[in-house]
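In this supplementary section we document a worked example of the pipeline. Step one takes a protein sequence of length 1055 as its only input; no multiple sequence alignment statistics are reported here. Step two produces a three-dimensional model, which step three serialises into structure tokens for compact storage. The input and output of this example are shown verbatim.
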Amino acid sequence: MAPSLNHPSAVSFIDELKPVNTEAAEYYGGKEQFSRGRTYSASFAHGYNPKRAPAFGDEWHSRARRMSHDEKSMTAPRRFLIDVEETIRVVLEQEDTDGDFQISVTDAGPKLMPLGTATSNGFKTFDVRGTYMLSNLLQELALARDHGRKRIVLDEARLTENPVDRLSRMIKNSFWHALTRRIDGDGLEIICADPKNRTGRINPRIYVPHGEPAMAEYYRKVAKEKPHLNLDVQVLPPHPDDPVFVKSLNNKPGILALEMNEVDDPRSGGKTLKGIPFIVPGARFNELYNWDSYFISLGLLIDGQVNMAKGMVDHFIFEIEHYGKILNGSRSYYLCRTQPPFLTDMALQIYNQLDRSDIEANRAWLKRAIQAAIKEYNTIWVAEPRMDPKTGLSRYRPDGLGIPPETEATHFTHILEPFATKHGLSVLEFSERYNDGTLREPELDEYFLHDRAVRESGHDTTYRFEKRCANLGTIDLQTLLYKYEVDIGTAIREVFDDELELEEDFDLAPFPVTPESYASTYRERSKSRTQTSAEWFDRADWRREIIDKYCWNESKGLYFDYDTVQEKQSLYESVTAFWALWAGCASEEQAWKLLSHSLKKFEVLGGLVSGTEESRGKISLDRPNRQWDYPYAWPPHQIMAWVGLERYGYLEEAQRLAYRFLYMMTTAFVDFNGVVPEKFDAVKLSHLVDAEYGNQGIDFKMVPREGFGWMNAAYQVGLSYLSTGMRRAVAACTSPEVFFGNIAIPPPISSQNYASNAGTDPLNLAMDALNLSEPGVFRYPAVCVTAVVVLRLPRSLISAPTIFRWASPMLPSTLITLLTPLLNYGFYNLSTLLDTVGLGSARPPPTLRFELRQLHAVSPTNARVVFSDISPRNPTDSSQSLLHDQNIPYSVRTRRLKSTRPRSREAFLDARRRSVRFGESVALGWEEDEVAGPDVEKRDTLLELAKMTNNAYLEPGEAGWYDLGGEWNVVSPSPILSPQSIHISSTSSNSVSLTPLAGNRTQMGFAGTSSRPQTTPRLCSLSRAPQQPLSAAEAPQPRKTSSTTTFYSVAAVLV
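The serialised model returned by step three reads:
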């Protein structure tokens, strides 16, 4: 039953028309409006409700009252008149069966809700169906409640909004705003909340850096003006990152002050301080983070929030100046460690989008950022203990003492238990004594050294770094520092006229790096000379050499971490190897090996996993999964790979990976009430992660309000990689395997017997996987039942949309995405399917008969393409010797293919002449035609073409060569003919030719008349050349070919 409406009698509720897909503040803002209603519309106020619950099965809805005066526009959009509170109650009661205040595919409700239409003043109803529409309804109702609305007129278009557009809009206009924080008097209450605080004290505390007296005074003033906050203001010592001091703050955690602007104070008429806004990751991470902020800034720049991103760089400059480094996070317990460095690229990305009206101010801002990066580089990343002077590799190796206080209470219990047992103490007692230094355990000190390094790496935690992270020169850190060096050199050369004076005084790290130079106590000072681009480019060249020396593995085609203690590579396969592409330190050959040999190790259905399953090892109760290992996918890894692949020209691969990840995000958004989590299980396409902390960003009620910082950014960045067609396919939740053709649609069974080596030959085994196991029964269990149902339906009703019109409320979108193309395939080939199971006419398919017509080759003297015609069945032709009298006709199965051709040859030639001679573009009429081509959906034809393609790379008799029988002749290259030779066979009508092709991707093709311009493929030889060189008389002569002939490529199946 539809939710009831309660409004004053004798009136109808109206609402002004507003833009449909706008933000909640605009859509639900304003006051409710009433007008005098028609007499029937007031009946609800007296308890009369003619609506009934929807009927199912063979029953139908009860006949509605006839109301001729009810407006029913065929063009106007449908709108609903809704009582907000009552509808929320009914939706949750009926659909939220697991009680989590979300509507998802896991809920067992009917997935159907009738709503009263606005045109009938709520009297007539229309059914809202399916998880996506109902979850959107719940979200809209929650937003309307937020804006104080009791009743709303809701556009149906907001419930059926394109999910890609909806999510992107929510990120741009809602999520970023909800994640915005500011550290000042107005923002302290929100930013000081720390879910990681386990001390029990919830009153806010702020630490102000030494040397900022105005800032300290400001916060003391705030504490006096807002006594309810109980704000504790503390000033840090000059060197706040001393490990002993930082450990002393573990029981007094607090927020660290960040950069502020001086602004006019309207109350006093003087000046005051105001915090610069920034974006936090979200969920339990309610502070400014280092590498999260870089990826967040990429999303902000796409969404036009340049000033927000610029403010985050200002905070990083402030942190380097006052805290000595860009902190892991802006909390007191993070003072000793940093995170992966991205400052230079972040600053340059923002600089390129700053308003050009004040160039000098922009240059001054970039100068501050580059100066800060140079300081951080010299004092942190290439300074000991992070620098290993022997190899020149930098490491994640932060200072610190004791147990990291920001972790979950039981996170280290399994580590501490043996030591507690050894001393006869409980885990809690041992932890307290170990932290205060009463008990010393060198083995435990070593463990927490590596644990802090893992957290500094950002990859906390992973078996890649287990008990060794502080010793590893990781490939990701080396590539980031290479990018630092290149960025700093480029900025100095391009923006600062190849000279940059440093304003802050600090030690410069020795260069070149040697153990002797680092052992010396002498250090050059930063203000002693100007910085030039040549020095930084020399550093970058040197770092690229040590990356190749220590991290690149030629035999495996992958970069690895290098253990500076064991002096060997750590062979854990990590997707961060692709960061070398992002930084630009890989050669073209290395990039190709990464792509061709290693990408497949990490690419799964939902994008790139963090590491390989083999490297992770077996998982058990004693060895649980870690969140930065297989099978989990994280936004930073995706974005870095996309950008890196695009940088080296592999745009198609970048688009494919972006599509996979955005598909996973979109299906979760559609199926799980708009969720945008921290990470995904990319193998299961699930955000329901059971590893360590679980997942973040999934605990919300009714409407998602924040998403998660870098996941939001990944969506916006990923969309910039997709074409219009790819974006539409993601919105339709089209699986990547369907969209990119990696799932072969099962064809009907062929009647031909393939018994000869079918059980052992890998190509036959691969082809069997494409087939039906029994007539009428697919190998995919989900389709078996559907196939039976389809055969019993009238033919007029057999279509995927018809089936899913009633099935969609009961099936998740991911399953529908898989079933739709499978069913569409079956419906499109229904007659063939019926013939297979004995219900059709079983007419034999037509065939194409081919004879050899031409031999194409490249002349060895002038590199021109030459041709040799072969007359059909003419044994006196001189070229017959090339084929040893094997020019016999052969045939292949066919299917009808649509093609286009010019309406007249004369018009085509005239248009071509005008284009070539005068550069004119002439509108040319085309007409559609059908031609017969090889039926690559038939198993035997596809298998034959695949074998031909395989043979293109082998010699007759070589291992892996397939004997095609007497129907096909074999021609191979010789010194007189280039390997770029092909063998063309044509039908008697010259309408279709079959040509073996090979290129970057192994393909087979057939040629026919078409409107599309020809793209010349790289060709390989499938024909046997003469044993003796051709004489001058026998040499083929060049000739022109038809300009309307083009190649249709069909991917061959190879194992």
